[in-house]
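[job 0417] fold request received: ATPase RavA
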Amino acid sequence: MADAENLVAEIEALEEKLAEAKRSINARFIGQPRVVDLTLSALLCGGHGLLIGLPGLGKTRLVETLSTVMGLNGNRVQFTPDLMPADILGSEVLETGNDGSRAFKFIPGPIFCQLMMADEINRASPRTQSALLQAMQEKQVTVAGETRVLDTPFHVLATQNPIEQEGTYPLPEAQLDRFLVQIDVNYPDRDTERDILLATTGTEEDEAHQVFTAEELIAAQTLLRRMPVGDAVVELILDLVRAFRPEDPSAPDRVREVVAWGPGPRAAQALMLTVRARALLQGRLAPSPEDVIDMARPVLTHRMALSFSARARGEDLSSLIDEVAAGVTKVEAAA
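[job 0417] inference complete; emitting structure tokens
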């Protein structure tokens, strides 16, 4: 009983701190609470986020603000077609000492930080994109045959232009799967855009203030994993993820018709973590089935693909996820 009471007290204290962090972020990144919640969810879960949207929607501003509020050492890398892996990871250079001796010295790249912003990640070549694979999964990099551990915590928040734009390279499936969530950044509505104009074109702007330290964020990530998840939520996660695998017996006919390949176990793990984060950010002590449905799109969209014929017909993954999720929920309720 005492352990349960302590856990409740810790969760409630973290919820208050998260509410303060959200206020500080929303003061600078105006009118996009859904984007802020999803980005914070990625950090709370110890994962990485992929922000997709057109240029000029404030993605860079959001990441810079997060670095301040969460107390993380951040670096920004502008991805371009001529960017090389060594520009991210670092490289060894030959140095000559005062006595004439020569030795190789490692010059760390910008990836050696706690929060890395990969700006316009899909403008770099596939070879350069792949330089992040080991770092995102194992929190370490191998350069010149030597493995070097990255700072803790380590997060990548990447921004991506829509792939229809010229000069972009689609991210490989293996790398997409390493992003915990895909965060769509859309145009603001008229009232929000008016607030942005008034807040950002005057002589002064609201400044973000630090709420967390790196150590406190690590503690929050540990606490999130201790958060209880009910059996009903666990079963719903499993049913939902397996429903999008065309070869699974439980998959609806609609999925078999239009889906080329579905999400793997990492998607279920991501849902298990992000539903806890959503509950925390909303001031609740445990996740609910509604959290699973709400997080389905950000967790699953980039982990599955439509068949060629479905894309040719103009099918949409987001609509499919909503449709199948609604069907799975009805079955769960009936059971």
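[job 0417] notes: The domain at 228-335 is CATH 1.10.8.80 (Helicase, Ruva Protein; domain 3). The longest helix spans residues 2-28.
[job 0417] exit 0
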